[in-house]
Amino acid sequence: MPITSNSFDACYAIEATVHASTLEGVYGEAYRILKPDGVFGCYECVLTDNFDPTDLEHLRIARGIEIGNGITKMRTAKECVQALKNVGFVVEKAFGSAANGDKIKWYSPLQGDILKANSVWDYPTLLRTSYFGRTTAM
């Protein structure tokens, strides 16, 4: 990036680094432009520690996410944390929000179940992701 090193007190990435060809490349640039003791916040879609690369169903789901979101390769949370450390960051906090105990799961709209609508505003998304919506759009 054409930004002077040690320029910012803080920087962030929201659902963006998942598209990077190498995590160290993008995290390294964030580290470079931060002042000493600067803060980097990152919110990213990753595979959980429960992901099993030998499980065909896990692979099918991961591949579906990759294709649907233009992601070359999904990474695990552990890979992301390690990449941050590899470029010099001290990871103060890392957590998965998928297991936060919410009654309504983050993936609920992706299931396409009209009965899971919480408000009238959920219907367009649920209709698009339902079997009917997916088959009529093809």
Automatic annotation (TrEMBL):
Keywords: Methyltransferase, S-adenosyl-L-methionine, Transferase. One of its GO terms (cellular component) is endoplasmic reticulum. GO terms for molecular function: sterol 24-C-methyltransferase activity. InterPro entries: Erg6_SMT_methyltransf, Methyltransf_11, MeTrfase_SMT, SAM-dependent_MTases_sf. Residues 1-138 form the SAM-dependent methyltransferase Erg6/SMT-type domain. GO terms for biological process: ergosterol biosynthetic process; methylation. The keyword Acetylation does not apply. Belongs to the class I-like SAM-binding methyltransferase superfamily. Erg6/SMT family. This is Sterol 24-C-methyltransferase. It comes from Podila verticillata NRRL 6337.
